[in-house]
Write a structure and sequence with these properties.
The protein has two domains: 2-165, no CATH class; 179-351, no CATH class. The relative contact order is 0.10. The longest helix is centred in the middle third of the chain and has 41 residues, at 138-178. By secondary structure, the chain is an all-alpha fold. It has a two-stranded antiparallel ribbon with strand order 1-2. Helix 2 crosses helix 15, helix 9 (180-196) packs across helix 10 (201-208) and helix 9 packs across helix 11 (212-232). Helix content is 74%, strand content 2%.
Length: 363
């Protein structure tokens, strides 16, 4: 046992919730952002602003035409796997081999590919690290083990993992359509909390394929956290804090939440209100890429995702036009209500002594 512990330490293989559930999951979200999400944004910009270079076919592979944006989106599997490998401190040969592993697991996982990539890339990474530099023919052994394990697990596990993820996501979306009020609260609160915790709400939404009304509730919860913390801590953090939290991440407050968990009450209460308003009043749906559901106002990706969904619905004939109510709902849920409700709840918490000035000061 001691030899095994020493070997794992030498190989930097740390089997822990933090390493896999926080570091790897968070990195996967960045990989998604740099491929699928950026590709979607590029396609949207090209279509809406009529930019020929962004809408024209730049490559054709197996009779499939690709634009600049769709080329970026097509690389989401490799991007996720390499990002996970980077977070797990993989040596170069393992990291580069994960390109193939990511492509295979994402493709075989279908719509639930991101979850398959997460599990399979982690295992392939750790086994690749285990054999790395252990032989004199490392340049052959390490890629063969990493890719071999990754491809084998992709063929064996990816379809089932992808199906399970989509069934769970489908169940959440079905329940939200059936009970929009209760599920609007539940999804908004839980995804919002995940956004502020040091895990990735975007990766969770992507893995579950969370779209539709449930995706709209997720957007509401994320915005309540980001805009809420940004506005109610404005006195302490001024404009820098407003920008870094409002269009960056509310995760910056995690240290302060540990010191005084009560500062989290206002954003959570806000998300419990804006979630059902999104689902029941404005019927706000996220029909863009699922990863956008967990991004909130980070780079305005959540809002771009909703807008992209509108355009997709119009193109498919399921929506005739974007109405004023659509815009009003998006603005209220994303910005106005969190900016009003969060400081209001926080002022009550201050009056009863649960929250004090400087509790949300960013260091």
């Amino acid at each position: 046992m001691e030899k095994l512990k020493a070997f794992l330490k030498r190989k930097d293989i740390v089997i822990s919730v933090k390493r896999y559930g926080i570091d790897a999951l968070g990195a996967m979200a960045q990989g998604l952002f740099c491929s699928l999400l950026i590709g979607t944004i590029i396609n949207t910009l090209g279509t809406q602003f009529h930019i020929p270079f962004l809408t024209m076919t730049v490559a054709t592979v197996n009779n499939v035409e690709y634009t600049v944006g769709s080329l970026a989106s097509a690389m989401s599997g490799p991007a996720m796997a390499v990002a996970i490998g980077y977070a797990l401190h993989c040596p170069p040969l393992v990291l580069f081999s994960l390109i193939t592993v990511g492509f295979a697991s994402n493709a075989l996982g279908g719509a639930g590919g991101p979850l398959a990539v997460l599990f399979i890339a982690i295992i392939a990474s750790e086994l690749g690290k285990a054999v790395s530099k252990e032989t004199k023919i490392d340049i052959l052994v390490t890629p063969l083990v990493t890719i071999g394990v990754g491809i084998a697990l992709s063929a064996w596990w990816a379809p089932a993992l992808g199906k399970a993820a989509m069934e769970l996501g489908g169940l959440i979306m079905w329940a939200t359509n059936l009970q929009p009020f209760l599920m609007g609260i539940l999804v908004s609160v839980l995804v919002g909390i995940a956004l502020t915790l040091p895990i990735s709400s975007a990766a969770i939404c992507a893995a579950l394929g969370l779209t539709g009304l449930a995706g709209g509730a997720a957007v509401a919860g994320c915005c309540a956290q980001m805009v809420g913390f940004a506005v109610m801590s404005f006195r302490e953090n001024r404009w820098g804090g407003l920008v870094s939290q409002g269009i960056g991440t509310s995760m910056l407050q995690m240290g302060n939440i540990i010191k005084n968990p009560k500062i989290w009450i206002a954003p959570i209460l806000t998300s419990a209100i804006t979630g059902p308003i999104a689902t029941c009043v404005f019927h706000l749906e996220m029909n863009g890429t699922p990863v956008s559901s967990g991004m909130g106002t980070c780079g305005f990706v959540g809002q771009i995702g909703v807008y992209t969904g509108w355009m997709n619905d119009i193109a498919q004939g399921t929506k005739t036009a974007v109405t004023m109510q659509d815009w009003a709902g998006l603005l209220l849920i994303s910005f106005i209500l969190p900016a009003v409700l969060c400081p209001l709840f926080n002022s009550i918490l201050k009056k009863i002594g649960w929250v004090k000035s400087e509790d949300m000061k960013l260091v």
